[in-house]
Design goal:
By secondary structure, the chain is α+β, with helices and mostly antiparallel strands. The protein has a single domain, classed as 2-Layer Sandwich (Alpha-Beta Plaits), CATH 3.30.70.920. Helix content is 37%, strand content 35%. The chain contains 3 helices and 4 strands. A 4-stranded antiparallel sheet has the order 2-3-1-4. The termini are far apart.
Amino acid sequence: MNVSSIVVKTAPEHRDELIVRINSLDLCEVHFSDEFGRIIATIEGETIEKEMEKLKLIQSMPHVFSADLMYSYSEDELADAMEHIRNLKDSVPEQLKS
């Protein structure tokens, strides 16, 4: 599962309408918004491609000035990185272990 945060910018008068639209998308949730029309949401997907489809859908919504990815987390990437780190411990030269 991949989870990403996005920042959506709109005119303040369209903020509430966009919050409803974003929350209606499967595995999307708005967590914060302000009076300036900024909206913070998370999107989830089985793959990064599924997340990007949702981001592009949000970007194409009426009244969206911009919608940008801010942070992304992938369980698969974390597992691969942890395996790589575990393998590194065996490759440290003896001189550096003391």
